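Why run this: before we spend reagent on co-expression, it is cheaper to look at a predicted model of the complex and decide which construct boundaries make sense. The entries below are exactly what would go into the expression plan.
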Amino acid sequence: MKPAPFDYLAPADIEETLDVLREYGDEAKVLAGGQSLVPMLNFRLARPAVLVDLNQVAGLDGIQAEDGALRIGATTRQRSLERHLSSRPAGGPQDLLRQALGYIGHPQIRARGTVGGSLAHADPAAELPAAVSALGATLVIRNAEGTREVAPDEFFEGFFTTSLAAEELLTEIRVPPWPGSTRGAFLEVSRRRGDFAQVAVAAVVTVADGRITRAGLALAGAAPRTVQAYSVVDGLVGSEPDAGVIAELAGNFAAELDPPPDTHGPAEYRRHLARHLLQRAIAQAAGLAGPRAASAA
Amino acid sequence: MDVDERTTADHVGLREKTITVTVNGDSYQRTVPVRRSLVDFLREDLGLTGSHVGCEQGVCGACTVLLDGEPIRACLMFAVQADGNELTTVEGLASGEELHPIQQAFWDHHGLQCGFCTPGFLLTTYDFLREKHGATEPEIREALSGNLCRCTGYQGIVRSVQAADETWER
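The model came back. Tokens follow.
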């Protein structure tokens, strides 16, 4: 099918974009990479009166890395970020971001799909919302009046729902630095290569002097929105990395999940995946197991 | 108000735009409706029917073309978004009557049967092999994962990519 008619605007800078969004509000839909929006337009599931194309907006894409932190412009292509991260030394917390990107669709999707677009779309089974949640990123949001910065938990509100207002634009994602002894891991089970996750787990763990001092854990596909495993983080911090402790914490957390059943399996199956992927991702990030340990997932 | 009922006076932006694109080295200028997909533009406005329209939802990969060198789904982009850009389609691979080494490999190793998915596979392979030498079978299958073929069972396609990896001088 073809999209319903719309009026097309391609603003040149962020200020013009914000003015357009203020003027047209709910009538307008923002187009970034289009890898989720355009299928919805083609099926006429979305029929915006005005399409605001961000692809000509100057200063909205780009990657800046300094002192262990990462600033990612919202319209940075997923493939650009993947290339940037692949060109840097492996082993740090941002490894999980690189791994997560590898699970998104296919090369053709990542060449066009944007980092901010995936976050603003807020598919509960998407990789990037879980990855930025585990990393404790800050999302920078602007409207014509000013800027606000929110944590992922204030951004992802529910099933395809964020706290972005109609006149607001996600402009940047800031990944904070983590201590030097931090590692990340991202594990996913999906039905086919490139599908959205049945369940995916993003894990960041800092181990110093034999103890876990800090951690970030988030899951995709386990609930109507990406969820952080705060109870597991609380249980881990202060303890020595231990497979038994990790298994118990992961099991307790997964038992409380209430994932929606679908044609690929009952809720119990997703709880099973959540428990095991959590265990393995934490073990990897804590240095208890190598990447090979996850391949049997 | 229903979108379809809006009159010209209501328009806040463009419904049509004149764009210039370079496809396979040739420059084209056309005026297109803003909602026309890039693949429809290539086929219907430029007559370049090598790029195929399969699912129109970014799943099958039949419409894969290169946009400024990157493989993309031409059904998930509007033609107006390609204004000023360079595209490579399957028509740009062969040199006259001489097939590109990737095309020749698909011919030689049963990389196609009905041929509907083939243009997408060829351009995906082109992008993959341009950066990769000595690809392993798992790497090839990963690279091709975004293209669907309902005839060959993929065995012949993987063999074709392996062969092209050796025969294409790049």
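The first helix of chain A runs from residue 14 to 24. Chain A has three domains: 7-56, 63-175, 182-287. Bring this page to Monday's planning discussion.
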